[in-house]
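Format notes (please read before filing issues)

Several people have asked whether sequences and structure tokens are stored in separate files. They are not. Every record keeps both together, in the order shown below: the sequence lines, then the token lines. Line labels are part of the format and must not be stripped during preprocessing.
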Amino acid sequence: MKPGPARWLYQTLTLAEPVYNPAERWYMSGLPSHAGSWASFARNVIAHAVCREDPLRAAAPPAEPRAYGGVFVTLKKLDRLRGCMGTLDPSMALVEAVREAAVRAALYDPRFPPVVAPELPDLRVAVSILSELRLLRELHELQLGRHGILVRQAERRGLFLPQVASEHGLDRETFLLRCCAEKAGLPPDAWRDPATEVFLFTTEV
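Then the structure lines:
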């Protein structure tokens, strides 16, 4: 049976005979045997992947099936972005979505080189679990710092997590126009176009 995309991704990260350098061995020995939160789970997944262990072996927190709108994993090193990847496909089990987003953020974000073992102690890992999306109808409905946005026009789409507005001091219109231009590849004022849909979501971090 052909493996699904998520399983295939993890299989490519597993070596038959892993070879550790001292930094990798030290970091793996300090990992907890269980995950108390989604962030600690994502950190364990990243450590396994970076240290050439199977990410499927990282202990996951207990989780009941639940509805969600997507998952993003954000990595920062010394307060600078080091990777951020996620999915808007809520058909995956939440644990699988977090696992895949963590691996992709650490190793496959095209903006950054892959994370290496000596960086692991300095990484801050945040997991954002998105609520289900709702359509923005009036600009005043957008609450900065609370809502993230998804801009969609035909095949183009872009997303900003809620913290982007807070961290960069953006007002509502700037938040929208930067998402259009920087994330969706649309004209900055495309959010005003009737052909463009803007969705709001909140996150559980």
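For reference, the curators noted about this record: Helices lie at 5-11, 22-29, 38-50, 94-107, 162-168, 172-183. Strands lie at 70-77, 80-87, 123-130, 134-135, 148-153, 156-160, 197-201, 203-204.
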